[in-house]
Amino acid sequence: MDTAEVSSICCIGAGYVGGPTAAVMAYYNPHLTVTVVDRDQARIDRWNSENLPLYEPGLLQMLQSARDGSTEDMEHQQMATVSPQSERRRPNLLFSTDVAKNIGAADMILIAVNTPTKKRGLGAGRATDVTALEAVTKQIAIHAKAGAILVEKSTVPCRTADLIRETLKTYRPGVHFEVLSNPEFLSAGTAISDLVSPSRVLIGSQPTTEGLRAATALERVYSWVDPCKIMHTNTYSSELAKLVANAMLAQRISSINSISAICEKTGADIHEISNAIGADARIGSKYLKAGVGFGGSCFGKDIRSLAYLAETLGLPEVAEYWQQVLKINEWQGTRFARKVVKRLNGTLSGKKITVLGYAFKPGTDDTRESPALEGIRILLDDAPAEVAIFDPFCCPTVVREEVGRLCGSEVLKCNDGSVEVYENAYEACDRSHAIIIMTDCDEFRQSAKAGYEVSNLENRLDWPKIVYNLEKPRWVFDGRGIVDLDVMEKVGVRVEGIGRVGWGGL
Ligand code: NAD
Ligand code: UGA
């Protein structure tokens, strides 16, 4: 496939990665046709509507342009500066369930299917489940045009490109396909700005003329990215670099969380520690926020995958090293939830506990592997009268369904259980015995400048109102370090946080 010949792209998997990535590629390449395919009809229907299957700032505007041909100015500043269009454009982004047909029509095929942790069998709970990837590779082998370029967008174990090549050879002998690795580094909640201004684009290819030609073809698709941000490596390095990037980010979080426990027993303050060490350019300030632990669909599974890879390569010490990152993460969430129970005299009986923040982080409705859910499970063991949940980014019906599915439907208030999900933060907090902050949403933050008296800034919770309606002795458990301990204590609130000495001293 010559670089100039790529005119149609098929992205398999209309999820958190496939949808936004295809939207941005289509938006910046009006000459290309980008079709996103998925076997999930309901998901594709939502991508074809205004009611998108996921929330990402800027995504709807991108779709309105690339999918619908709308010419209204993009709100996104960064997009506006490099926007290719000023006149009406040809819609060039499509969503379909016809996987086979669209694979057959594409010059380049992106694989963006899910790669979760295996649930059963060999390597259960650790190895990556490549079932979806294997299935789509077989479909590609059968339906793809000879010479189409395959691109791994999914996060995969190192040497998965070889597995893909083998599958292609088995089902399509004698036909050559180039397989590239192009892992995605976007974060939930900032997907569009991460895609528009990536820190880097990694393209792994075979060190052959055909491999490098395919890599150049993919580089051209990233037409909006500064070429000096595009990095070429071999396929294995690219695959492994993605796992390592997530593992290293998660490792920093577990490292700072482990120190937070020392702070709570010594009088040191974890925020001061983070600031002090983060000022050293060799360490850097990012991913040093202590809290209830990391969540999300990827950090956990990617570390498990890396540790399993090390184990299968006969490197148990390496596997153990990365497992420890997960152990600390689990321990951090558990010790925080247990502290809540301990501080409430070891019993939650007859008490209402309010959980603020349910998604795995602010700015997203993605609830996969959310630390809040684990915390709620621990609280439920102590049979509270009510666990009230509020998250400004999550739909209460969806959260209710999920808690019912993962903890058992009997825990829901509608089934005489104790869990209720609220649309309104004040109702969730009303007459509560303790508030537990699980995500660092701006809405939950106190105004750093103004403190308690005027904390009711736009979108921010009116903390005085909340505190007034709490049951005495008025507890707030701050799992993300966002309320001011001194200010709260002055008005009679007992605050326990992470990484600092809480109410009552050492
Ligand atoms: P997802 O579960 O949101 O989406 C995957 C989609 O693939 C689903 O819609 C599913 O129906 C579809 N699919 C599965 N098998 C299929 C098949 N045989 N035919 C057609 N469609 C099929 O997953 P995601 O969050 O988008 O993640 C995809 C990959 O990207 C994973 O490997 C993940 O590790 C990686 N990743 C995710 C993120 C993130 O923020 N979510 C960021 C970077 C990388
Ligand atoms: C992460 C990576 O940041 C992305 O680069 C990567 O592409 C993605 O995983 C993936 O492969 O799926 P994401 O999971 O969306 O992105 O979210 P992050 O912002 O990295 O946060 C992950 C978790 O760590 C959240 O629960 C967050 O609250 C927590 N966190 C983050 C901390 O506890 N402290 C910090 O300092 C930073």
TrEMBL record:
A GO BP annotation: glycosaminoglycan biosynthetic process
Keyword Oxidoreductase recorded: yes
Ligand binding (substrate): 242, 287-291, 295, 361
Top-level division of the source organism's lineage: Eukaryota
All residue ranges annotated as the UDP-glucose/GDP-mannose dehydrogenase C-terminal domain in the record: 354-485
E.C. number(s) listed in UniProt: 1.1.1.22
SUPFAM superfamilies to which the protein is assigned, alphabetical: 6-phosphogluconate dehydrogenase C-terminal domain-like (SSF48179), NAD(P)-binding Rossmann-fold domains (SSF51735), UDP-glucose/GDP-mannose dehydrogenase C-terminal domain (SSF52413)
Gene3D superfamilies: Cytochrome c1, transmembrane anchor, C-terminal, NAD(P)-binding Rossmann-like Domain
This protein's pathway: Nucleotide-sugar biosynthesis; UDP-alpha-D-glucuronate biosynthesis; UDP-alpha-D-glucuronate from UDP-alpha-D-glucose: step 1/1
SMART domains linked to this entry: UDPG_MGDP_dh_C
Record bears the keyword DNA-binding: no
Protein name, per record: UDP-glucose 6-dehydrogenase
Species this protein is from: Calycina marina
